[in-house]
Structures are given as C-alpha cells and as structure tokens.
Amino acid sequence: MLEMTLYGIAMPDAIMYRDDDMYVLLIPGQDEVFLTPDELLERLKGVLADCQEALPRELRALENLDAQARHLRDTACEFERQPGERWQWYVVRLEK
Questions:
Q1: Which residues 6+ apart lie within 8 Å of 74 measured at CB?
Q2: CATH of the domain spanning 20-92
Q3: Which residues of 4-20 are buried (b: 16+ CB within 10 A; e: fewer)?
Q4: Could you report the per-residue pLDDT of 6-58, keeping only the tens digit for each?
Q5: H or E element in which residue 34 lies
Q6: Residue 16 or 76, more confident
Q7: Which InterPro entries match (predicted)?
Q8: What are the structural domain ranges in the chain?
Q9: Collapsing DSSP states into helix, strand and coil, what is residue 63?
Q10: Strand ranges across the sheet with 78-82
C-alpha cells in the first residue's frame, strides 16, 4: 500500500496567530487561493476524505476527519496528495 507523507516545517505555536489571519493555498496547476482558517479546514477535509486508506499513520491514528484536518492545518504546511502533487499552505496577514 502506498502511504502518503506529511512534509514541511512545523507550524509555529498557534498563539502567534490572530483571528483575522488568512491562509494562502497553493495547489499545482491552479492559481493561489486565499482562505480563512475554516475554509482551509474544509478543503483539507475534502482531500483527506478521498485518501483515507493511504494516510500517514500520524493522521490515521486520529479519531475522525475533523481531527485529522485540524491536526494537518495546525501542525504542517504541506501534504502530498499523490506522488508529485503537494498541497502547500501558509499563514498570511492581509493589510486592511
């Protein structure tokens, strides 16, 4: 069985983020997308739902899809959906 891999630098402590922070999501072959934390969570849940059998052990050990997506959003900044296709996301602070 092919197992997906979590990549990336560990995200800094969540206390550093503000409620008005956004994420930029980078998907190969698509334009960058700016998302709220909840919107990113929904996108991650969608991709994780499609590949449950190939998730890394770290994510499979979590009790449900919500917990998996939240853990991924809060502790990583990259996920290899399939070989050669890595989703990346970064916290950004937009000027008002």
A1: 11, 14
A2: 3.90.940.40
A3: bebebeebeeeeeeeee
A4: 444 444 444 444 556 899 999 999 999 999 999 999 999 999 998 888 888 88
A5: strand 33-35
A6: 76
A7: CRR7, CRR7-like_sf
A8: 20-92
A9: coil
A10: 6-7, 78-82, 85-92, 22-26, 33-35
